[in-house]
Amino acid sequence: MALHAKKAVGRLSVHVYDAPVRIWHWVNAFSILTLALTGYFIGSPLTSVSGEASANYLMGHIRFIHFAAAQILTVLLILRVYWVFVGGVHARQIFYMPIWSGRFWKEWSHEVRWYMFMAPQPRKYPGHNPLARFTMFLMFTLPLLFMVITGFALYSDGAGRDSWEYVLFGWVFSIWPNSQDIHTNHHLGMWVILIFAIVHIYVVVREDIMSSQSIISSMFSGERLSKDMED
Question: Where do transmembrane segments lie in this chain (predicted)?
Fold first, then answer.
């Protein structure tokens, strides 16, 4: 019986992620986790307790943490968009899709087959592969923007019509006059991002093991290490 094994015959290191992108990734992940946890309790509040409000201000603290995390996420998103224009080529990949490119869709199709275990080998990309770009744009970038817009619209409902939040985001109420509809859509947006996060974690671990490329460590070091394999 022949025993087949693969061994690495060469290593190639490519700088992929700039420091601002890596910092944004991890702080953004922590902010989203904080927003999801506090947002869940805002949508499903804890049981009310009797007594002086000042001594039972837990929900007030939860709301404050939620609003603070939202401010951090928004500022970082603005800075991240700025880095799209001044950073490296890989800094802009999740903010647009080259849908006009036949090559993009051909490579996208190959990645779909690879993730379905129908292709023997993945193709190596310095940054995100086409399927990753497609998924991140539709299930992360756009939903994140949606969450910022609807979140500040909801905040403006309490801040008042003379607040800067209402000036910038009050137009959302012309689409959904009932604030409860905005609450519901904001809540659904959270679940879209959480589902994406679960799939994202699975995929990066899978690719780190199966694709002969460093995926997880590249978001710490900025370097993508690829290994050429032979039988």
Answer: 21-42, 62-85, 131-155, 188-205
Q: Is 25 exposed, middle or buried (0-12, 13-18, 19+ CB in 10 A)?
A: middle
**Looking at the 3D structure of the chain, how many domains does it have?**
1
Domain, as residue range, for 129 = 12-47+55-215
Each residue's pLDDT, cut to its tens digit, for the chain (231 residues) gives 333 444 445 567 888 899 999 999 999 999 999 999 999 999 888 777 676 766 678 888 999 999 999 999 999 999 999 999 999 888 999 999 999 999 999 999 999 999 999 988 888 888 899 999 999 999 999 999 999 999 999 999 989 999 999 999 999 999 999 999 999 999 999 999 999 999 999 999 998 888 888 888 899 998 888 765 444
Residue 19 included in any domain: yes
Q: Look at residues 141, 146, 192 and name the one whose alpha carbon lies nearest to residue 25.
A: 141
Q: For the whole model, what pTM was predicted?
A: 0.86
Strands 7-15 and 223-230: antiparallel
The CATH number that applies at residue 146 is: 1.20.950.20
